[in-house]
């Protein structure tokens, strides 16, 4: 048993309202720069729909993720080392700009600068790639206005994989369904993007499992884009480098949640630590039957409350407070204790670490329409098979097409709703409701508290990084080097400190990790705005558009430096007058 720690996330889809606050704040923090105008590290899709990029779930077309070869061993769907070597200068199996969308802005200046005329001036859309006039045809979540429409059902790879459910949707179009699916990088236990990179630029951090891109080693082959089945690795067309979601590691290192989680209006995201057996990952990902992959991954996770696991974790170098955080982790509770969270597309065999609680849909209203009590446990259980969101569709998303685990999750959610109604009305609780889904009344109430009432510290159980574990003589250097682990060190990215294509940053800006450990948490949790003492030496890279040369960003050329003052004869360099002989 080789114990390792992994940061993970669970999203409760019943709470997502599709407001895109997470998308906008992530965009503002990480990809508000030249070269990544089309990139959304966090996007919210409408289901059914084509997704972003279009039809990314169709792995017969895009060849992402893993498959099993004739000997039953894992192999990249896009091909192994020999194929990559032969096609290293051409990687055609990846989305084009039209599959993402051509980013645009509007010519607002024309509204105020246009000369007087007969017609009212308009702000035409302008391409952010070419700068020319364009027509808006597609965007990161264009499906939002067309949820469940025939234009989408024809192009949705998930519906194409479930013929019987597709028939049901077509026959019951007047009861069309939709729900929102937020997506970030899965930071998988078995990441196919890492295995696809010829230069070894993508790597998985051993301390927390976050997958990052080493910009120094990236050569822009873009095979990682092909290899990722979730299409959450992007190509910066200006820098020629790959970029991806960093799980906001500068925030996570100091115990703060990711930006998308912090700003989520519906409070649907949970972050925590999971302990897992690294020696069993390959075996679990190689399960012959796709229906077994969900349970296989769940068995890879280790119970942090087991004394043997805790002892082996500390022996493996995992700090004690990380083990304690794993014991309090909401991720462990939702995945293994209450068993209501499911992985996204386990059939890709990447062992994803962003899991989802499937939506229960307006089941109470559906039951009430029949004239019976909509929150009665018996009625709720009977209505699950007739949900507006087909069970088969959810199964194709979360359990490789197996409806049994999805049905079990929805039954637990329905039992919680029925059981808690009796509690809230002050009636005697019915333990048989909880027993019907394999739980106790106390467990149902604990699950309700976590899903509905949990405060900030219970939704985000994030242990801080341990810099003191390094060699004290090299600690400062290690902290500075950790700043360059960020996938956005170039072209004005938030991680652009320390070494880069233009040398050291001027003014001695504090490396990102040093600032985090000593200042970031206090600044973001304080009641009053903080005023860093070295503000005059800093450059706000988040507001830089990549053009021009902000003052203080690069060292001043020698020719532009002021001349050193000439020393008068008879004085020493310290200004003290020497006595004449």
Q: What is the 3D shape?
A: globular
Widest beta sheet: strand line-up = 13-12-1-15-14
Count of discrete alpha- or pi-helical segments spanning 4 or more residues: 26
**Tally of DSSP β-strands:** 15
C-alpha termini separation: 81 Å
Structural class: alpha+beta
Radius of gyration, in Å, reads 27 Å
CATH level 1 class label of the domain at 266-459: Alpha Beta
Approximately how much helix is present in the residues? 25-40%
Low-confidence stretches: 470-518, 570-581
The residue-averaged pLDDT reads 80
Subcellular location: Cell envelope
InterPro entries: 4Fe4S_Fe-S-bd, Nitr_red_bet_C, NO3_Rdtase_bsu
Protein name: Respiratory nitrate reductase beta subunit
Organism: Actinomycetospora cinnamomea
Task: Explain what you see.
This protein starts with a strand and ends in a 56-residue tail after the last helix. By secondary structure, it is α+β, with helices and mostly antiparallel strands. The C terminus is likely disordered. 33% of the residues lie in helices and 11% in strands. The strands form 6 sheets. It has a 5-stranded mixed beta sheet with strand order 13-12-1-15-14, sandwiched between helices. It has a two-stranded antiparallel ribbon with strand order 2-7. The protein contains 26 helices and 15 strands. Among the domains are: 93 residues, Alpha-Beta Plaits, CATH 3.30.70; 194 residues, Alpha-Beta Plaits (2-Layer Sandwich); 67 residues, no CATH class.
